[in-house]
Every structure is written in structure tokens, then in C-alpha cells.
Amino acid sequence: MILKYQEYLLFERRLSKATVIAYVKDISQYLLFLEFQIGLNNPAKANRPHVRSWIASLVDLGLDHRSVNRKLSALKGFYKFLAEVEELDKNPTQSIPSLKEKKRLVRALTKDEMNSLLNENLFHDDRYGRRDRFILFTLYAFGLRRSELLGLQNISIDSGARKIRVLGKRNKERELPCIPEWLELYKIHCHDWPELQSKKTLFFDENGNSLDPRRLYSIVHSYIKRVSNIDSKSPHILRHTFATHLLDMGADLSSIRELLGHANLSATQIYTHASMEHLKSVYLKSHPGS
């Protein structure tokens, strides 16, 4: 049944491969819990106490509430699917509330840190160093998700119109304007990597293969740790920094939402909190009475 659900997520829900892999992993962990801790090998026979026991076990393992809620959301989707294919009498996840989450404020990189991160002297003067700098600049210049960057193709770029096409969540496409500095780096990247003319992706690893998520994370992490002590050093922090800097410079939330490809404004509003924390910090450091 889990294979059918995987196909449903991929071909009917049209979720990204990374999202589907995460959902299937969460559900597989739940099924193992049912089998070895409860003694059930059929998820359709589980009840609400079984699901609550699984949630409690995740908390006991030290998972934060946000991670537990993500797994619970995946499980609710799985049981909803079972109900739709008529293999479920009663949904054991029904009315089970999410755990209360602590408000998480992720710090963005400062403008000085971003200047250091994109400084040419930080990189080797070869095509790999220039590739790395172009990757960092692309993530920051457009506020891309990891999957969006890895999905960029040469045909995604319209240099004449100064825009790129990005394929976001659920295959929703959006167009983003290019700044001249990015287009200059793109020209250099095309010269350094002539193979991209015959391949689908824009970025390659040292073996000439399309860059994968793990290698991308390694590249981004290695450079950020050289310029900042920020907790998160993932590609997503550059997307977060992009949005925070735009807000600090006066961009309105609706425009930022469009640029980020958020489905609704509530997902974008986290940046108002992050920016307010920055404002408080500046105020406390600079106010004469502090």
C-alpha cells in the first residue's frame, strides 16, 4: 500500500521527489513502530491510542514539536488516502491535534556577512570556485529553494528579457527578474561549463554529473561557516536572507510572496517577525538610554 501511496503523491498530488521521499520515510517509521512496538502489521487496524503512542515515542526520542507535527501531517495524509481507496473503516488520526510549537526565529545573514560570502577572494580562481560563487549568488539573488536551484536549466534563462523561469512546489512556475550582476556571472558560468549546452541542469559536480542535494548542501555549508557563526548554514538560509533583506529595504510582503513563490501570505509573514527582532537588536544597541 505504501507504494501505491507513493505513486499517488508523485503523479496525482504532483509533489516533488524530495517531499515524497520524506513522507514515505515518515510513514515507514510509523509502520515499523506499529509492527514491533504494537504488534500490528496492518495500519488499517490501528486506533487513536496507537497513533498517540507513536507521537509520544517521537517526543521521547528528542524530536522537536515541529518535526513531530510534520510526521503527523504525513501520517494524516496517508490515512486520508487509505480512506479514499476504501481500505479504512475509521481514521485513527482524526481529531488528533498537532503539538504546540515554539516560535522559531531563524537569523538571517547580515549584509556584511553576505558581502564576505560573495567576495571573490573566498573562492579558488578556477571553474569550481566560480561555480560555487555563482551557486551562492543565485540562491541569494532569487531566494530559491534548494530543489528550484537544482532544477534550473540553461533553457530556464532568458538573457535578452533578463528573467529566469523557476519551477517551484507542485510544479508551479514563476518568472523572476535578473539583475545585471547575475547575468554577468551566468555568462562566465556558461563559458566555464560548455557541457551545460547538451545537458538539462545548470550546475554540475566535479565528475560532470548534475549537482545533487547533498553536494549542494556541502558547498553552501562550507562557505557560510567561513564567514558567519550562524546556526543554520543550509541553502535555505540564503532564501531566508534574501527575503529578510528585501523587507529591511522596504519591499512589501505581497511582492516578497510572489518572488518566493509562496501560496499564501501567511507563509511570508515569518519575515516580519525576523525583521522586527533585527530592529529590536539595533534599537537596544544604539538607543542612548539603553
Give helix and strand order, one letter per element, not per position.
Answer: HHHHHHHEEEHHHHH
**Uncertain spans:** none
CATH uppermost class of the largest domain: Mainly Alpha
Globally, the shape reads: globular
Q: Percentage of helical residues?
A: 55-70%
Q: What value does the average pLDDT take?
A: 89
Q: What summary fits the major beta sheet?
A: 3 strands, antiparallel
Q: Based on helices, strands and strand pairing, what is the structural class?
A: mainly alpha
Approximate strand percentage: under 5%
> For this structure, what is the CATH homologous superfamily of the largest domain?
Intergrase catalytic core
How are strands sequenced across the largest beta sheet? 1-2-3
Compute the number of helices.
12
Number of domains: 2
CATH topology of the largest domain: hpI Integrase, Chain A
The total beta strand count reads: 3
Distance between the termini: 61 Å
Rg on CA atoms, Å = 22 Å
What is the assembly state of the chains in this entry? single chain
Which CATH-level-2 architecture of the largest domain? Answer: Orthogonal Bundle
Walk me through what this model shows.
- The chain has two domains: 83 residues, Orthogonal Bundle (DNA polymerase, domain 1), CATH 1.10.150; 176 residues, Intergrase catalytic core (hpI Integrase, Chain A, Orthogonal Bundle), CATH 1.10.443.
- The chain is built from twelve helices and three strands, in the order αααααααβββααααα.
- The chain has a three-stranded antiparallel β-sheet with strand order 1-2-3, with no helix packed on it.
- A hairpin with a 4-residue loop joins strand 1 and strand 2.
